[in-house]
Amino acid sequence: MASHDTYDKLIALLDEHGADYRVIEHESEGATEAVSRLRGHALDRAAKCIIVMVKIGKKEKRFALAVVPGDKRVDLAAIKALYGGTYASFASPEIAEELAGSQSGTILPFSFDERLELIVDPALLAHPEFFFNAARLDRSLALSTTDYRSIAEPRLEPISQGAQD
Q1: Residue 101 maps to which CATH number?
Q2: Region 81-95: what's the mean pLDDT?
């Protein structure tokens, strides 16, 4: 299954860089709020990972992996503005899963696809570590924020808004 391959790729990458992380096994859950309760941490320490499609003019599309704190929403207007786009929306589940290499609810805050630019809201990185589903519904990681920044090299932009509805 592709998501297990993506999980293995992530663990290999983190181990190769000597990252400080912990694997957390839990009941299968993909919803940020519910899985944060299972893992036992505040919602603002969870990485919510959403793939956004931005249209630039009539013919060009770009994809961004938007990563925001679990207690926030992705600001589509902010992402559209970053690209000078004419339209932004959440990518279809099929496209999102293809680009992420895992099912919705398990998308990593890492991009392993050159078509997918990683954009992280700085608010997520305010704590020494943060949490995310690791390309599997039954397994999460707690990862050092410092290690994440040096390994993933995300573009840092304010792309979140308000509390989650």
Answers
A1: 3.90.960.10
A2: 97
